[in-house]
Amino acid sequence: MTEVDVSLRAVRKSYGDVVAVADLTLDIPRGAFFSLLGPSGCGKTTTLRIVAGFARPDCGDVLIRGQRVTEVPPYRRDYGMVFQNFALFPHMSIADNVAFGLRMRRVDRGSIKRQVSESLALVKLAGYEHRFPNQLSGGQQQRVALARALVLRPAVLLLDEPLGALDAKLREEMQVEIRDLQRQFAISTIFVTHDQDEALTMSDAVAVMNHGVIEQLGTPREVFERPRTEFVARFMGAGNIMEGRVVATNGAVQTLDLGAGSVRARDSGKRSGERVLVTVRPENVSLAREAGDLGVRANVVSVVYHGATTHVHLVAGPADAVMPMVAHLPNRSASDTEWQRGETVYCRWNEESTIFLADRP
Amino acid sequence: MSVLTDKQRLSWRRYVGEGAVLGPPLVFFTACFILPLLYLFVVSFLEPSQVELYEKQLTIDNYGRVVTDEFYLMIIGRTLLATALVLVISLLLAYPAAMVIARFEPKWRIRMLALLLFPLMVSNVVRAYGWISILGRRGIANTILLDLGFIEAPLALLYSFNAVVLGLLTILLPYMIISIANALAAIDRSYTEAAESLGAGPFRTFWHVTLPLSSPGVASGCLIVFFLALSAYVTISLLGGPRFKLLVSLVFDTVVTLQWPRAAALSFILLLLALAGGAVILALTRPQRVRGRRA
């Protein structure tokens, strides 16, 4: 069995009537980069603050390296944290910021000096010892915050939306840098973000949270390609949510009637006549002007050019049950079909692209 | 017209605009404060006169007398002691109170700070007389102590060091609390959490993070309290009375006895004390460090 660095056992936390985290159970194996992904208010930050000890769960237990720390104050827990605004102490030099944790642990001076320069070298900030936080760029401050958290060699690294304060280009650079550092230290990491791109590119495992519960936990690929609930599908950008029923099963392939047309899917185990909720990723949808046996009939609402792709927004279905749909079509050559607003088209995709979702509650 | 570039014309216009806004207060300040102060400075180096305001004769005697006369030195020492005491006591009382107030939600914090401003709406004269009715020979304090049999004869509570310090404290404490509470409330929670995440317990988090980050509020509170304590006249003269005089009382006495050059010299000594005290306060609190600058 792999070692577990952080465990949450049936953790619950409410603020007044609002349940921030509901009976959350979670294990983070040693060395994993684990993302908590979700919109604001989904409970991801509260979960992180419970691990850090800044929020106390109403019930349940928190374990770090197998030790129960539920009642242990933050300053006696074994973790390093990077805050959204970095929270570098403005009145201390970069060296003093990085040395702070070592000083609190009463490490001797010589050793502090050595570890501080090692840490700063690791984040490519050797020579910045005597600067102050306000003299550094956002990316540099971010690296100091990482150095300050990692210099203590903690059991776990907590990252609270650490890229939110950076501009887009820098954010991508820091994604790579953080991941490299994390691998180098082989440190278990909990990363809180609302940005699905960040979660997908950086993580070993992603937990998508909504209303205080984990809707789906899996590898980035599983979460992205095989969302299990409508919420996860929407959050991962697969907005084509369609209701229908199974009309035929032919070997491993089923035919679904979606009202505005039929599509094929891999056998879901559902029987003929059963209601189903499905989705398809916009990049898997292709459009055609000709009707056929298969395809969802829809009207083009708008066509938006995005460089590498063109996003075609559509509505399908009868007036009393309109289904908004979107297709991301690759722009390969000038001879690509130009889609017009108002025209009627047929959306098609292959059977592997149809994803079954859990029924709406 | 062609001598000026567009950019120059634009900046010239801006100067005119800014001048129009800054001008009136600047003129007022110069005419009514800077120039009289310079005049006073000159007067402080002139001989006193029996018939005129001063004799047109340069001297440093006005200052010489003050720094050699034991009475003046005693008054200066007493003034510094009283203001320093007011400063220290108000700081010690205000900081914990400010910490409590700073923890409230903004809505309630503002209400509590507004409540602190209430006493300031009552005139200093009225408040000083309030203290007199409490501390006087037949005041409330003495009456109660006599009735309870703790004392045989009324205590001389009024016209003393303690009365002046107490009176100044009640006036100045709110300023200290308000400035520290605002500074504490402005400290982002993530700083103290970062300290805790790095292993600092509550005391060390306070000492290494909260206290230094609140230094701008401590500095401004101390400066306000120090300057106001040094120059408060009504409270000092009503509660200190004829027996307990501070430097401001001397300036007043010297003016009413028409020794203008001496009064001017005393005023400048008072100003010097204020500047020196202010410098000491800034050196000790180092508010500039919050902006990440070296002291």
Would you give an account of this structure?
The complex is a heterodimer of chains A (361) and B (295). Chain A has helices at 44-52, 94-104, 109-122, 138-150, 168-185, 196-202, 220-225, 230-235; strands at 4-15, 18-29, 33-37, 59-64, 67-68, 79-82, 156-160, 188-193, 205-210, 213-218, 240-250, 253-257, 261-266, 275-280, 286-288, 295-305, 309-316, 323-330, 344-348, 355-357. Chain A has 361 residues and is α+β, with helices and mostly antiparallel strands. Chain A folds into two domains: 4-229, P-loop containing nucleotide triphosphate hydrolases (Rossmann fold); 238-356, RNA polymerase II/Efflux pump adaptor protein, barrel-sandwich hybrid domain (OB fold (Dihydrolipoamide Acetyltransferase, E2P)), CATH 2.40.50.100. In chain A, the strands form three sheets. In chain A, strands 11, 12, 13, 14, 15, 16, 17, 18, 19 and 20 form a ten-stranded antiparallel beta sheet that branches. In chain A, strand 9 and strand 10 (213-218) form a beta hairpin. The longest helix of chain A has 18 residues, at 168-185. Chain A is elongated, with a radius of gyration of 25 Å. In chain B, helix 10 packs antiparallel against helix 13 (260-285). Chain B is an all-alpha fold and 295 residues long. Chain B is 74% helix and 2% strand. The radius of gyration of chain B is 25 Å and the shape is flat. Chain B has a two-stranded antiparallel sheet. Chain B has one domain (70-291): Orthogonal Bundle (MetI-like fold). The A-B interface holds A 52-54, 73-76, 79-81, 83-85, 87-91, 100-101, 104-105, 132-135, 148-149, 152, 158 and B 188, 190-191, 193-201, 204-205, 208-209, 212-213, 215, 289-293.
